[in-house]
Amino acid sequence: MTTTAMMHAPIILPIASRFRVMRAAFYTPTATTGRGIRMGLPLMLWGDPGVAKTSAARQFGDAVRAAVEVFSPGERGEAAIGVVPVPAADGYLDTPLPRWAEKFVRADGYGLLVLDELPTADARVQPGMMAAIMERTIGGVPFGGRVRVIATGNPPDQTPGGHDLALPLANRLIHLNWGHPTVDEFSMYMLGVDSDTAADVQRDADPAAVEADVLRRWPAAFSAAKAKVGAFLAALPQRLHQLPESGATGSAQAWASPRSWDLATRAIAGAEIHGLNIDETTAMIAGCVGASTAREFTVYAAKLDLPPAEKVLSGEVAWDAATDRLDRVRAVLMGVTGFVLSLPETDPRFNTLGPRYWALILRVCESTPDVALRFAGAAAARKGLMAAGGLSGRAFLDSDAMKVMHRLNKTGVARVP
């Protein structure tokens, strides 16, 4: 196999690793909305018929104590996803909530909607599927806050009535390849030893506690992931958006766009929190932006070797921008800026590390002022950060934050492009 072919080859993980990826995705924040933080990255399990994709999703749902609903859009049709209008008594049109969705709308506990055989959803149904995946709604009615979505599918050419996923829908999913079991794994299954559930699926006694721990660790992990992705895309800007040609091989799966890079950044942060190994992490990234780009990113990030943002700010890790290479300076500054911006003002670290952030920016201005001030412009947009540390009066006017602001006003730099 040539080097190019190896870079583009699909990543197929062992069964235990696939379940670790599923668990990491289940407990990773995917968005912040008016209803709070939405948890759960949307997975799409691809594999040949008969390799137990749907069964695996059910087993995983049981392991995380979630109510599971397996829904096949091709089998149930438009009415079952709340997109068919029905005349109401008052003369208006309503889209009734499907009966199967009631447990997800009204329940306070965890739920897992398995969109089975998603490639059987035709063009009229796919917008409803996108709403279920991205907005967690059916017919405009929101699911409970602890509901997650996993989709499964055979390749369209192996599915009766199968369609390629529309590019916008494919770009909203993390595509995970689901290979067939090994002979040993299948032999254990035949003997009644279900290795998938007995050994490979981690069972959580208290999913809410796991979720709370992830949210506690999220600011540091997410800022570090942003720094790595930002540095990679600054070095290779052509990787930001790679729209596949319609009908090209793999076009209905992962491809790089600003949207899927945001998804990949969250996957990288979630992988760090959940302790995934390099192959598992690369598979998650590949599921967002494609295998070749994911492998390229993994090599680049390993060479970047970034220090933790909080340790840079606290002084626990010594870092000198004047002796570092430019791409790494940019990455470190993106990491520390993302970290301080993620801290709520009620966090004790906000008033401790906020002033140290401005002092760091001021030092970096001595060697690379253009880079430092671009990130400082983004941080200055948060007014509370300027006054972090409780300074007022003359002390505030003489602070490092104000010195940075004077430099910003002179240069006119406002924010990171």
Helix-strand layout with pairing:
Elements: H1 3-8, H2 15-26, E1 29-33, E2 36-39, E3 43-46, H3 53-63, E4 67-71, H4 73-76, E5 86-87, E6 93-94, H5 102-106, E7 111-115, H6 126-135, E8 137-138, E9 141-142, E10 147-153, H7 167-170, E11 174-177, H8 183-190, H9 195-200, H10 207-235, H11 258-273, H12 278-289, H13 291-304, H14 309-314, H15 326-342, H16 348-364, H17 369-380, H18 383-386, H19 393-397, H20 400-411
Parallel strand pairs: 3-10, 3-11, 4-7, 7-10
Antiparallel strand pairs: 1-2, 5-6, 8-9
Helix pairs in contact: 2-12, 10-11, 10-15, 11-12, 12-13, 15-16, 15-17, 16-17, 16-20, 17-20
Characteristic terms for this protein:
Rossmann fold, 2 domains, five-stranded parallel β-sheet, two-stranded antiparallel sheet, 11 strands, globular
